[in-house]
UniProtKB/TrEMBL annotation:
GO biological process: peptide catabolic process
Keyword Signal: yes
SUPFAM superfamilies assigned to the protein according to its UniProt record, in alphabetical order: Metalloproteases ('zincins'), catalytic domain
Protein name: M1 family peptidase
Length: 750
């Protein structure tokens, strides 16, 4: 009999405890939509490690990537805006697969009237395409040959090729063998440059001549990788590029009155600059201050260009690069200064701009900005790998290429600093860390936006430093339910959303991860490790996520899910404040709740009546199995106010419920059950019952079993209604009667 009753009662307590826990997890209100199972569920990674990609986020022991080396020539016809050229490409197949064909990117074909990208450009409000220019655009491919040699002679054979929109497939006469075999292609081409080229290239008219900013100007190899094989998504305008690494030799023939700048290092300054300009060029290589190489006064002066020729060929080299771009103009002012790198190596900061952009409030400081940006990122993250860094003023809003960027000719002061710093930040993402921009814009634009925020704090003692962002205000935009998730290909985003989802949201996410989750030291170590591991390689999002987790030692699945994979909102709220036993000197009990789907650590700022202010940080793990959380704050006086996220560092959608004030909200009184507390025993059952108090709840605990809260029914009666169990204390509170249905048991204190 006793044994049976014991099991029934203990079972009731266990069920009661389970029921109450479930109620607590639902939160103190019915408005919470938070589900900790969704946020902290295991199984975030759906792919296991492979020989090419480690589970820790680093390249695997058999990681491979193919290579493309380019020997490029171009001739600029200024009158026609026409560029004619040839590309000799050596393609090396390091994959374990034989290749019967290769794919190339013909990005200029975006500007063909019948291109897919042209077809999906809206009538107004787009930065893509040629902005309505009546243009006979796109590549004219004159020939494609496969180059081999026999007895020391070069042999060219026509290759079969098929062009589909912005892609060209070239069939190989025999399969290209795996693990290091190579093939050479020679492609002759021409195209007319658009005046406005999808905000990535173009032609700017100035009073001293046209400024050509030239990009996507030659057939480029598509990437064949271990993730997808051939990456052949068409170029539609929004999604940027995914390219193989290699060495580039570039020769550009332009009118003799032009100056040409290009990715890499100029190989023949003696052939293209005057003797005086060569002296200035060498001086700039040794100077931390900007040196004028061709001044505004020299523009239009024939003595400022080598005499006796109508055209000059400029030769450049850049190694271990994924691309090469260039600019040409008779209108260029040229200045330069030395870049100091952490290893002791030097590079050269160069600026090229028309007189319309001149001035110390404008492009006269471009080289200073360029130098500072490159030096800063080299020190913080990874050393700049190229011999020069050139900033060009054109009609592009801002666009990046290895060793050269195009910024807008009209930018000044903080705008010019911002765009210069941003575009050169792209040297690290995606020029050094070669992610797939066509699929994952956030892995270059977002990461770059993040590092820009740190660089701007550092430049010239904070000249253009911006204050911390108010993430509460930004939450409405960053977590707009109409927005796609960050983890969306740029071609799948509404064009108006790209700035938020490609740049601002991922950039803000990394700032939160650094400052609110991991801390600066752990974050910086993990982020630097990611850059070093994947320098000149092709990481995926998983490689980034895994590296950050493995190096920092934190499981961040909940963060990736909330901010990158999904578009979850955050709303942390204060729900209740009490004093322990109603005595401010004994401390306070504070209850908070997570009302939306995103979990984050909680920063709690408490101000007391005397003006003392302290902060407490609660880890994100409080939300791992709870919707609400109650904690004790060890105060010794009355509280004046409590604020969650006082710095507005988190994207909390409702600032109002983050703040509690004594004057407005008041302190709730705690019901004291001291007279009922203690240990009770019965001659009828073989176990003791311990009664304690937690917050406002009378807690009943049977020896060796769970604890359940009993509701106060008044007049000394408490009940676990769901299980049909009640206890009625006597008037002296020295004992109680426990009732279960028709059965009653008497317990006495002691």
């Amino acid at each position: 009999m006793k044994s049976k009753l014991s099991k029934v009662f203990l079972g009731a307590l266990l069920l009661g405890a389970y029921s109450i826990n479930a109620q607590q997890n639902q939160g103190s209100t019915t408005t919470s939509v938070y589900n900790y199972h969704d946020a902290f569920a295991p199984g975030f990674y759906t792919k296991n490690a492979s020989e090419t990609r480690s589970a820790s986020g680093q390249p695997g022991p058999k990681y491979w990537q193919n290579r493309a080396d380019y020997n490029l020539t171009a001739v600029l016809n200024e009158a026609k805006n026409e560029i004619s050229g040839s590309a000799l490409i050596t393609y090396t197949n390091n994959s374990p697969d034989k290749l019967g064909f290769v794919w190339m990117q013909l990005d200029q074909n975006l500007f063909k009237k019948d291109s897919r990208g042209n077809a999906i450009i809206p009538v107004k409000g787009s930065r893509n395409g040629a902005k309505g220019q009546d243009l006979d655009g796109g590549f004219t491919i004159k020939s494609v040959t496969i180059v081999s040699s026999s007895n020391g002679k070069s042999i060219e054979k026509e290759a079969k090729f098929t062009i589909t929109d912005t892609r060209m497939q070239v069939d190989l006469p025999e399969e290209l063998k795996a693990n290091g075999a190579s093939v050479k292609f020679k492609i002759d081409f021409t195209f007319i440059s658009p005046v406005y080229g999808s905000d990535r290239m173009g032609v700017l008219d100035t009073k001293n001549g046209k400024v050509f900013t030239v990009a996507q100007w030659y057939p480029r190899m598509c990437v064949y990788d271990d993730v997808k094989g051939w990456n052949t998504l068409p170029y539609l305008g929004a999604g940027e590029f995914y390219l193989e690494y290699g060495d580039f030799d570039v020769a550009i023939t332009a009118p003799a009155n032009h100056i040409v700048v290009c990715s890499g290092e100029l190989q023949n300054p003696a052939e293209v600059y005057t003797a005086e300009q060569q002296k200035r060029w060498e001086q700039a290589k040794q100077s931390d201050k900007t040196v004028m190489i061709r001044s505004a006064e020299e523009i239009g002066n024939t003595a400022s260009r080598p005499a006796g020729k109508t055209a000059l060929t400029w030769k450049f080299k850049i190694k271990n690069s994924r691309d090469a771009s260039w600019a040409s103009s008779a209108a260029f002012i040229i200045d330069a200064a030395k870049i100091n790198l952490p290893s002791g190596k030097k590079s050269l900061a160069i600026s090229a701009y028309p007189v319309e952009s001149n001035g110390n409030d404008a492009w006269g400081r471009s080289t200073e900005y360029t130098k500072s940006s490159i030096e800063n990122y080299s020190k913080r993250w990874f050393e700049y790998p190229y011999p020069a860094a050139t900033n060009v003023a054109g009609n592009v809003g801002g666009m990046e290429y290895p060793g050269i960027v195009f910024c807008n000719w009209s930018d000044k002061n903080d705008n010019l600093w911002g765009v210069t710093d941003h575009e050169f930040g792209h040297i690290w993402f995606p020029m050094i860390v070669g992610s797939n921009e066509r699929l994952f814009a956030w892995m270059d634009e977002g990461f770059n936006t993040f590092i820009n925020s740190l660089s701007s704090q550092d430049f010239n003692k904070g000249e253009y430093k911006q204050g911390p962002k108010n993430m509460h205000r930004m939450s409405e935009v960053l977590t707009d339910p109409e927005m796609e998730p960050v983890f969306t290909a740029p071609d799948g985003l509404k064009e108006a959303h790209l700035g938020i989802l490609g740049y601002e949201k991922p950039g803000s996410g990394l700032t939160m991860l650094r400052e609110q989750v991991l801390g600066k030291e752990r974050f910086d170590k993990a982020f630097r490790t990611y850059v070093a591991r994947w320098a000149f390689k092709h990481p995926t999002p998983d490689d980034f996520f895994r590296t950050m987790e493995n190096v920092s030692g934190e499981d961040l699945n909940w963060f990736w899910r909330s901010w990158f994979i999904n578009n979850w909102k955050l709303d942390q709220a204060i729900t209740k404040v009490k004093y322990v036993k109603n005595d401010p000197k004994s401390g306070a009990v504070i209850s908070i709740e997570n009302l939306q789907k995103m979990p984050m650590p909680v920063t709690v700022e408490v101000k007391t009546k005397s003006g003392s202010v302290t902060r407490t940080v609660l880890p994100v793990e409080i939300w791992e199995r709870n919707t609400s959380w109650t904690f004790k704050y060890n105060s010794t006086e009355e509280l004046d106010s409590i604020t969650l996220d006082p710095d507005h560092a988190l994207p909390d959608m409702n600032s109002d419920n983050n703040v509690w004030t004594n004057a407005k909200n008041g302190v709730e009184k705690t019901i004291l059950y001291d007279a009922y507390l203690g240990d009770y025993s019965s001659k009828q059952v073989p176990f003791k019952i311990h009664i304690t108090q937690e917050d406002d709840d009378l807690m009943v605990h049977a020896e060796g079993q769970g604890t359940a809260p009993f509701a106060d029914k008044g007049n000394g009666k408490f009940a676990l209604d769901a299980e049909g169990v009640s206890i009625q204390f006597n008037d002296q509170k020295t004992g109680f009667k426990l009732s279960m249905g028709s059965q009653n048991f008497d317990f006495t204190k002691g």
